[in-house]
Amino acid sequence: MAKTKKVAATKAASVKPSAAAKTAPPKSVSGKDEAAGGKRKLGLRGAAPWAARHAAKHAAEARARAAEPPLPGSARATIRTPVDAEDIKERVRDLHAALAQIKGLRKNLAKNFFEIGLILKNIEARKFYEAKRFPSFEAFVEREIDLGKTTALRLVRVVRLFQRDGALEVGMDRIFAAVTAIDSGGGESEASRIPQAPQSTTSLPMRPPGR
User: Are 123 and 91 in contact (CB under 8 A)?
Assistant: First the structure.
């Protein structure tokens, strides 16, 4: 009986440590153990803890540099703030407003052609098209104006050559025909419409011989 109790106590003692070992928290890996082949504790998505701190530090430094005004003449100043940046913004705004006006007026082109010509003339005179990187006014109207290049250029010519009331009275089609005739040099000139005196076919008398 005594021998049986002793064997049972020995078995219980041998089972206890293993159960405690299963429930005990894992020991942290020291630097020596890590060098010996232990795994490092990684952060979010497998990154080392120092990587997140390093990235946060660099982000803070970048924000601080961006908040500081760039030194005059530096590359960052040239890239970020062009000399005429505000002027470009203003011209782009004015150009978009002008295009919106043209879009509304062209719904009744026969009535509003002169006003459209005035807007296009203003765009050309102030070179708003350069704000959208167009090399010329002709290239701009060809790409940006739905009226077509020929019609847009004729509208500008109408505004330059005629008064508003007279152009509206004549009408768009006839005023376009007049502009075409002027630009091509066609039609009769004022001098050709003035009747000329007929040339005389009578020969002058000859001087008598010996005088």
Answer: no
Confidence of residue 46 (pLDDT cuts 50, 70, 90): low
Position 88 scores a pLDDT of 82
101-106: Cβ within 8 A, 24+ apart: 102/145, 102/147, 103/146, 106/146, 106/147
Pull the structure tokens for residue 99.
């295009």
Instruction: With H, G, I as helix, E, B as strand and everything else as coil, classify residue 164.
Output: helix
Look at residue 206 in the predicted model and tell me its pLDDT: 47
Average pLDDT, the chain: 73
Q: Using CB atoms within 10 Å of the CB of residue 65, give its burial: 0 to 12 exposed, 13 to 18 middle, 19+ buried.
A: exposed
Q: Which residue ranges make up each domain of the chain?
A: 85-186
Is the whole model's pTM more than 0.70, yes or no?
no
Q: How far apart, in whole angstroms, are the C-alpha atoms of residue 96 and residue 128?
A: 10
Three-class DSSP category at 37: coil
Residues contacting residue 40 through CB under 8 Å, at least 6 positions apart: 29, 34, 48
For residues 100 and 110, give the distance between their C-alpha atoms in angstroms, rounded to a whole number: 18
Strand ranges (DSSP E) for the chain?
A: none
